[in-house]
Design a protein that fits this description.
This protein is mostly helical. It has helices at residues 14-28, 34-44, 49-60, 68-81, 87-100, 104-117, 122-133, 138-148, 159-172, 176-189, 194-206, 210-220, 230-244, 248-259, 274-289, 297-307, 317-327, 331-345, 352-371, 374-381, 395-411, 415-428, 440-446. It starts with 13 loop residues before the first helix and ends in a 6-residue tail after the last helix.
Length: 452
């Protein structure tokens, strides 16, 4: 039996191999039916080690501490069956074990080792891409794809995925023209390619092509019916374009009817997945900065954040949970969250130093900002501004943290800090801050010359 790219699978069961390949396609396509296909795989062959490993992977991909126990069970089962597995499949089991242990460098090392031996292993490629991104390692994300690209051909089933991943990596590295070409090529191959659509949306955002971005996403939306939580993030991107056009009523409508309306049949999968919380909290913060009263919308997010206090698997989600807790006045939960983050920061996980040295002071700053202690917010954030990218997230996602610092600096009347952050974003974003929502007012008030 073989996978999508002709690599050997250890199952002797054709039905299991077929279902596993459908599982892979679903994973690569961000589809909601992934669990259904994996269950079919394991039912067809309960001794298929790589399928158990994939179950563990999918649990870890949720960045939810409560799901780690399921991943551990899947890993133990896969390890017990690995004697009949191929060397490639055994490497996947090692990668899963490392990931569960918090050793993300070890997991990435196992995937890169697999890609050296089997450069068309689409599962290893996609998981390495994902983890590089959430560690803030854009250059590694790009290099990983480019090392294997010569071994891929357009005939491979996952070729569009390679293009989409390359497009996003190129965008995060600032090569917008090449990123757009790769992303649009992937979309031409499959208009339902959500990751490639996402990559092109990022290019259009970074280049300030707002009208084009709205039209592009509206045109692609008909292909999203089977999409999972990434669809919510695409709606977030559309809302971001409207935000830049000062169409704030449209942004709120998208927030309520698309991004967060849990009763809508169009909002599928776990609405408290890390990406959903990031979408919602960052949008509410941006709207408030522009003078929009968001009402009780923070409370729903705070409920979800409070239920996840102590869960530090997603470093970039932590400041977003803190935004919700602080905005909703959940002081006790916020302090509890900080205590648990400090404890996690003393551990051995790859992300422990990131949580300790970056996420903790950042979350402290968010709490002080909501309390109105803007000078302390500036003092806490200034030393970590250059390290915030290590928490993961794209340029577009990280931008809310820059705005947090800017808002505190303006309220504290710290002209030096305001000019500093304006210079930072001028260097990192091709659209001048004077033409961007959230920065235009500061540019008018505090700067002159090229920042305009």
């Amino acid at each position: 039996m073989q996978d999508l790219h002709g690599l050997a699978l250890s199952t002797p069961c054709a039905a299991a191999a077929d279902a596993f390949n459908r599982t892979l396609r679903s994973y690569l396509g961000y589809r909601t039916d992934i669990s259904e296909h994996l269950k079919t795989t394991l039912k067809a062959d309960p001794s298929f080690a790589l399928a158990h490993c994939a179950k563990g992977y999918f649990m870890m991909l949720t960045y939810k501490q409560a799901n780690v126990a399921v991943a551990v069970e899947a890993c133990n089962t896969a390890r017990g069956l690995a004697g009949e597995a191929t060397p490639r499949e055994r490497a996947h089991v090692r990668a899963l074990a490392a990931w569960i242990a918090g050793d993300l460098d070890g997991a990435i090392g196992a995937w890169e080792e697999t890609l050296r031996a089997c450069p068309t292993d689409v599962l290893a490629m996609r998981l390495a891409h994902f983890n590089y991104f959430w560690l803030g390692r854009a250059r590694d994300m790009r290099a990983s794809i480019e090392r294997i690209a010569g071994s891929w051909s357009p005939e491979l089933a996952g070729y569009g995925t390679l293009l989409g991943c390359h497009a996003f990596a190129l965008e995060e590295c600032g090569d917008y023209a090449a990123a757009e070409r790769a992303g649009r090529e992937a979309i031409a191959r499959d208009p339902a390619d959500l990751w490639a659509t996402h990559a092109v949306a990022h290019v259009l955002e970074m280049q300030g092509r707002r009208e084009e971005g709205i039209a592009f996403l509206l045109g692609m939306e008909r292909h999203w019916a089977q999409g999972n939580n990434l669809v919510h993030h695409l709606w977030w991107h559309r809302a971001m374009f409207h935000l830049e056009r000062n169409e704030l009523d449209v942004v709120l409508d998208l927030y309520d009817r698309r991004i967060r309306d849990l009763a809508s049949p169009l909002v599928t999968a776990q609405p408290d997945l890390y990406i959903d919380v990031q979408n919602a909290a960052s949008m509410l913060f941006r709207l408030e900065r522009l003078g929009v009263a968001v009402g009780g919308r923070w409370a729903e997010l705070a409920d979800k954040a409070q239920a996840r206090v102590g869960d530090c698997l997603s470093a970039f989600t932590l400041p977003h949970w803190m935004m919700a807790l602080a905005a909703a006045g959940r002081e006790s939960a916020a302090e509890h969250m900080l205590r648990d983050m400090r404890a996690y920061g003393g551990g051995a996980a790859t992300t422990a130093p990131l949580v300790r040295d970056v996420a903790v002071p950042l979350c402290e700053a968010i709490l002080h900002h909501r309390r109105g202690d803007y000078e302390q917010t500036v003092q806490l954030m200034r030393p970590i501004l250059g390290d915030m990218h290590r928490l993961g997230g794209s340029h577009a996602q990280q931008d809310v943290l820059e705005q947090l610092f800017l808002d505190a600096a303006m309220r504290a009347e710290r002209a030096d800090a305001v000019r500093f952050v304006l210079e930072r974003v001028t260097a990192s974003h091709p659209v001048p801050p004077g033409r961007r929502a959230g920065y235009a007012d500061a540019t008018r008030r505090y700067s002159a010359g090229p920042l305009h």
